[in-house]
C-alpha cells in the first residue's frame, strides 16, 4: 500500500486564469463583430510593385485600427474587391442590356458555323509542292518605343531603359541576317514549327521583343510568292504562329488585370481594366504601328485585334474598317485576298456581329478582281510555269472562307445582291464556285437553273467548268431543287461531265451527281449513270486510281436503293462491282452491301437473283480470310454471313432449304461461327418438319430428317472448340431423338 500514489488535487479555474493572455481594454463604441462593414469610400492608388493596385477603405467604425489593414498598407481584399466592383455598380441601370448584348454576341457564331480548324488539314494536304523553298531569317528595326509596363516620363531612367532595349535588339540581330535556301516542303514546315516554338520559348523567358521580332519575320514570309502553288499552305502555317502570338499577348494583358487573384469576367468593360494593363496594351499597339512594312504591320495588328477590348468599347469596330482599307495597299491580288481572309477570320472570332466590315472586305475584293487577269500576274505565272486554271484554284480557300463568314445567317437579300454583283464581272467562274461552296444549300438549290446559266457563260480557259458543276452537285445533295427542273438540271450537268477526258476529273464529278440521281430518279437513270462510269473508268484500268470515289458511289446507291430486288435488277450494278480488283477494297465494299441488306431487309427471301448475288458477295468476304486475319475481323465477317443465312427461307420447300445450307457449308467452311449457325439452322429445319408432320413422319420426311441429323453429325467434328462441339452434339442428339432417329441420336 505504501507504493500507491494518489493524483494531486487541481484547481482548474485558477490555472486557466493564470495562463490566459494579457487582456487590453478597448473602447469598442458601437462595434459588434457580426455587424456588417459598410464601405464608404474606395480609392485606388499605385503601389511600388509594377502591375498591382491598392485601396483604402473606411467602415462605420473608423476609430478601430484593423490589424490586417496595417500589415497590407490598407489593401485589404474586401476593399480591393469593392473597388473592382465599383464600375459595375455605377453602371447598374444598363447592366441588363449589357448582359443581353454579350449573350447575343457570344451566340452569334454557333455550332453550324464550320470553324477554320476544319479547313486547315485539307489546305495543307491539297496545296503541296516539290520545288525548293527558302526562308529569309532577317529581323526588323522599330522606331523607339516605350518599354512595356512603364508610363511615358522624362528622366534618365527611361533613357537607360531605351538604351538597354536597343542593345537587346542589336544583340539579337547580330548574325541573324541569313537565308535558308533549297528547303524541301517538309524542311520548310519543320522550320516554321521551330519558329513557333522559338516564339513560345522567348515569351516564357520574358523576351517580349524577341517574340515580336519572330512574329514580324514570319509575317513577312506571306509577301513571298516565289513558289506560288504552296502559298495557301504557307498561309496556314504562318497564321498559326500569329494566332499563338495574339493569344499570348491577350493573356498577358488579362493577367495584369487581376487584383488579388480575382480575374476579370469574360464580358468585362474597359472601365474594369486598370491603368497599368491599358498602358501595356497601348504599348503593344505602338510597337506594331512602328513596323515599316505594310504586310507584317497588318498581320501582327490583326493578330492582337482582340486586345482592343481593354482600351475601349468601340476599339474593334473602329479598327476593322481601318485594317480593311490597309489591304488596298497590297499589290499582289493573291497576297491581298489571303490578308482579307485572315481579317475575316479574326473578325468572326472577336466581333462576329460586325458584319458590315466583312461585307466591305468582300466588295473591296470585287473591285480589285480584274487584277487577277492583269499583265503583272500573267507575267509572274509565265516565269513560274503555272497555268491559269491552277493559279485560280489557289484563291478558293480564301474566297470560300470570306464568303462563308459573310453568308453566315445572312438574309437572302444580301446573298442575292452579292450573286448579282458577281454576275456583272467577267471571267467570274472562280467567284461563282466560291459562292456555291459558301452559301446555304437551299439558296443555291432554289436557283439551280440560274447558276447553270451562269456556269454556261463562264470562260472554259479559266476555272474548269466541271468543278463548277461539282460544287453545284454538292449543294443539290443537301437540298432539293424545284421538281420541274430536276431532269433538266441532270441533263445539263451530265452533258458536261461525260465529255471529260481525264478520268480523275470525271470520277470526282460523277461521284457527286450519282447521289442526286439516286435521290430523284428511277433505276433507269441510275443504270445509265453507272454504265457511263464503267465506260470512262475501265480503259487503261483507270479505276485503280479511283477506289475511294467508286466506293462512295456504291455507298450512295445502296443508301437510296435498299430494296435489293430492285438493286440487283439494275443491270450495271454487278459489272460495277467487278471494277474493285484490289482485294481489301473489294471486301470493304462487300461488307457495306451486306450491312445494308441486314439493316433494310425486313422479310425472308428466296429470290434467286438476290441469293446468287449475295452468295457471291459473301463468298468474296469468306475467301479474304487467311492466317493473318484478326479475330475481330473474322467475327464481323461471320456475323454478316450469318445475318444473310437467317434471312433465306424457301417456305415449305424444306429440301431446297437443306440444299442451300449444304451449299453454304461448302462455301464458308473457314468461319466456325457460320458452321455453328448452319448446324442450328438445320436442327431448326428438322424440328419444323416434325411440327408440320405433327410428330408422325412419313417415309419421305423420315428420310429428310435423317439427312438433317447426318448433316449435323458430319459437320460438328470440324469445329475446334470442345465446348461448342459438346453443346452441339447435345442439341443435335435431342433433335434426333425427338424425330425418332434413334441410331443417329445414339451415335
TrEMBL record:
Where it sits in the cell: the answer is: Endosome
Q: Does the keyword Nucleotide-binding apply?
A: no
Keyword set for this entry? Coiled coil, Endosome, Protein transport, Transport
Which region ranges are annotated with the description Disordered?
37-68, 89-113
Q: Which GO terms describe its biological process?
A: endocytic recycling; protein transport
User: What is a single cellular component term in the Gene Ontology annotation?
Assistant: endosome
Q: Does the keyword Magnesium apply?
A: no
Residue ranges with Low complexity bias: 52-63
Q: Which residues form a coiled coil?
A: 166-198
Hey, which family's this protein in?
Answer: Belongs to the VPS35L family.
Q: What is this protein called?
A: VPS35 endosomal protein-sorting factor-like
